[in-house]
Design goal:
two-stranded antiparallel ribbon, 2 strands
Length: about 290
């Protein structure tokens, strides 16, 4: 199911540690290996065996990505930083401008960051931005599932007045935030903007003096206009459309009830189905 497919990976991002993840992975492997002996004695563990295994797999993977083994950095590859003078000031040996020189650490976080004075600031920022990227991706997947449900049920009211404006809101605001994160990671900027400040300027209509590139501020303002316009479209039309449909259904039911009454007076016997739903009231809260 969808929660089973997504939750272990999100858990791994939160719990990422090679040591702790390996313990969880071994516990999950043991549960899978001894599943039959637990089928009736421990039915809860039997049902959760593959979930525990997948949690361990993703927690271990994220631990390698964070290069964290019980808070110890694993020196799996040569570091991209070197302390030339031996004074604790590390300088990069790779091409920080991404202009064709030597690349950075091959996989995950460079172990040179472990114990650095700014380790907490850097690692927390990295994990927060990763969480934002995958969180927005998860929400977009949820919206796509909502699109598929609306199309499958042929519900054009939901598709036009919910699905489309929801996607516009998501992409124009949160999608733009993801673009800012990825652009800052892949493009060296002399005076890089603060993402939170840029989003505040975008939402408040203020001038951002630190653009990502020439024209990015104007693009952000345009996206904010689409974001604002999508809100009333998402909230207002659908309740009134449902109210109109409800009144039309009531009118139709009332007409069928009068026709049935005339038929009974003329001696025609029919099933008592004409008054179904006649007294129901429409509530906007639903």
């Amino acid at each position: 199911s969808r929660p089973f497919a997504i939750s272990p990976f999100i858990f791994g991002m939160m719990y990422g540690d090679v040591g702790h993840g390996s313990l969880l992975l071994m516990a999950g492997a043991w549960l899978v290996q001894n599943a039959e002996s637990l089928r009736f004695s421990q039915p809860v563990l039997f049902s959760a065996r593959y979930l525990v295994l997948s949690l361990g797999i993703f927690a271990t993977f994220a631990g390698f990505m964070y290069n964290d083994f019980f808070s110890i950095g694993l020196q799996l590859f040569p570091s991209g930083f070197v302390d030339k003078d031996g004074n604790g000031q590390f300088t990069p040996t790779y091409d920080v401008t991404n202009s064709g020189g030597p690349g950075p650490y091959p996989f995950g976080l460079d172990w040179a960051w472990v114990g650095a004075s700014n380790e907490l600031l850097y690692v927390n920022s990295l994990k927060m931005k990763l969480s934002v990227l995958f969180g927005v991706a998860q929400m977009i997947v949820g919206l796509l599932l909502r699109w598929s449900n609306a199309l499958y049920e042929k519900n054009m009211t939901d598709f036009i007045f919910e699905c489309i404006p929801m996607m516009i809101f998501m992409l124009c605001f949160f999608g733009w935030m993801d673009v800012m994160i990825l652009y800052k990671w892949t493009h060296p900027i002399d005076n890089a903007p603060n993402i939170i400040n840029s989003l505040i300027c975008m939402a408040m209509g203020q001038q951002d003096n630190n653009p990502l590139w020439d024209g990015s501020v104007e693009l952000a303002q345009t996206l904010m206009k689409f974001t604002v316009l999508s809100v009333p479209i998402m909230l207002l039309p659908k309740p009134f459309i449902l109210l109109f449909q409800h009144k039309a259904e009531q009118k139709k039911s009332k007409g069928e009830g009068h026709q049935l009454l005339r038929d009974e007076e003329e001696g025609v016997v029919e099933g008592a189905h004409g008054g179904h739903g006649h007294g129901e009231e429409f509530e906007f809260g639903e």
